[in-house]
Amino acid sequence: MKFEFSTAQRIIFGNDEIHKLPQLLADFGNRYLLVVGFDAWNATPAPELLTQAKTTWLTYRVSHEPTINMIDEGVRLAREMDAEAIIGLGGGSAMDTAKAVAAMVHNPGTLLDYLEVIGAGRPLQSRSLPVIAIPTTAGTGAEVTRNAVIGSPKHRVKVSLRNNTMIPAVALVDPKMTLGLPKPITAASGLDALTQVVEPFLSVFANPVTDALCREAIRTAATALPNVHRNGDILEYREAMAFVSLIGGIALTNARLGAVHGFAGPFGGMYDAPHGAVCGRLLPAVMQMNIKKIRSQTEYGEKLKRYQQIAALIFQDAAAAPEAATDWVSELVERFEIPRLGEYGLRRNEFDDLVNKTQASSSMKGNPVRLSDEDCLEILEASI
Fold it and tell me: What is the pTM assigned to this prediction?
C-alpha cells in the first residue's frame, strides 16, 4: 500500500472561531491583501477583526469566479503593497482568487506560463505566499485544496493553476459564517460538497485515509443536506455541511474526482452556470451510468461494493441496493429545483464539443470506470 496525504498546515473548525483571526495574523506579518466575495464583507465580523489586529490591509472585492484578468489585477495590488500574506474570505471564487494571487506574486512571467491546458503548465518557481482561507459557503472545500480554478472567456474553458505550495497555511472554518445563505446557494453548494465526498470515495485513486473521511462525510450529508435546505436557520445543520465541505476539499486533494467534475469544469467554461448546481444535476446521471458499466463488465465487479456502501451510509441499511443511492440523489436534486443543463444554454449540437473537452479533463482519470463518448452523450441527454 502506497499513498500520500496533503492538507492545510492548520485547520481551525468551529462556531465563533472567526474571532481567532487577529491572533492568527500575528504569525504572518502586517501587510495583507484581503480577497473578499461580493456579499461576504458586510455579513462577517472581518472588518472589525482586521482593525483589531492592527494590520495594514487592502480589500480586493470579487463578484464572480476568477478569470485571468482578475488574477492579474490581484497580483498587481499585492505587489504594490508588498503583501506578506493573502486572506481569502467568501465562497470558492474568493478563495481560489486568493490562492492564485498568492501563487503568482513571487513568480516571474504571466499566469499563462503556469496554467494547465491553455497555458504552458510550468511548475511554480517560487513558493506561494501564505493564504488564510475563510469560507462563507459550504460547498467547494477550496480552503484546503492545492489548486485554483480559473476561467478564460476567450477559450470558453476553466483550467487550474496547481501547486502543492498553494494549499492554504490556515483553513479557518466557522459554520456560523454560512447562516443566512439563500436557499439556491445552500442547495447548489451543498450538492457540490456531496459530490466531492462521493467522487473521491469512488475514485481509482482513493486511499484508506480518504475512504474513512468520505464515509463519515457521506453519512453526515445524508441527514444534514436535506435538513439544511429545509431549515437553514438551524446551526447544527450548517455546522454539519461545513464539515462535509471541508472533508470534500481534503478528499479531492488526495484522491481526485470523477466524471461529474469532468463535465462540470468544461461546462462552466462554456456557459454561465453555478458550479454546484451543475454538479448536482450531473451527479445522478453519472452515478447511473457508472453502475450500468460496472454491472455489464466483470472486471469492474469490486467497484459495485463502493456504490453499495454509499447506499448503506445514506439509508443506514447494510442491505440497501447500489441503485438506491442514485435514486436518493435524483430525488434530492428535483426537490432542490436544480435547473437542467439546457436552462444554462446547452444545446444538443454542442454535445460533441463538450464531450471532447470532458474526455480531456484530468478529473476523468479518477472515475471508477472508463466512459466512452457514447456513454458521455447519454449522460448529457439525461441531464439536459
Answer: 0.96
